């Protein structure tokens, strides 16, 4: 009657904190992350025939995350995700692919009395660094890195005009608007042949993340944006140039609207056009603009 066409399973929301204590200086560094581990393989009987023998318990996957975090560096997250994925496919003959997702939360070192504090940190925003690695037997390791939840706003320096107008169009053209979005950005690395291949480029992961973040923020701030579409394309183009081992860059940007409020009904108060100062931030609906940009001549099969 029916057959299992796809299955994977594992542990989600494994929360992990690791501290590094520099014995000489007394300076401590911390990393906090949330890990999701999902395994694929010859596991069909566990679903179809109540045979639990192929199951690497989700609890075992969680314990493995803790043990490998103790035995290995957890940064950059691209390396730790690859170490985990490689462990699962090489430790269990019947597990053929491991999907590891890591979300790194911000703990930014505090500055106290003008100096970096040796062991105190603050959460300076909901932005996260994300990594999704897939280790597949015989096929190497694919990695997508990214930034999520980076909330930005500019109060001018953004326009939107020249778009299609027809009998459904109400939106006026504007040469000066507020632009705000919550950045979701990702970059796909060339396929890595092995864990050793990943290890050989380790410094490039932080460099690419820093470049993507700087390019996103500086392009957003400096550019006189003609549209979200064009601004995000320019960001992708620069990230591809800054990170030569990446093959594709993608953005997903909600357009978080701020509406003018006409207050002229109250004693003729001027609050529209060049007089607009008080706005109504909208939570929904929002525009949602997405794109993937690859190097010229390379197909976008991802
Ligand atoms: O940058 C924009 N792109 C759009 O596609 C769009 N549509 C819209 O109503 N406002 C905007 N802004």
Automatic annotation (TrEMBL):
Provide the protein's localization.
Peroxisome
Q: Which organism is it from?
A: Cryomyces antarcticus
> Where is it predominantly found?
other
Top EC class, one word:
oxidoreductase
**Gene3D superfamilies reported for this sequence:** Urate Oxidase (3.10.270.10)
InterPro entries given for it? Answer: Uricase, Uricase_CS
Would you tell me the protein name for this molecule?
Answer: Uricase
**Pathway given in the UniProt record:** Purine metabolism; urate degradation; (S)-allantoin from urate: step 1/3
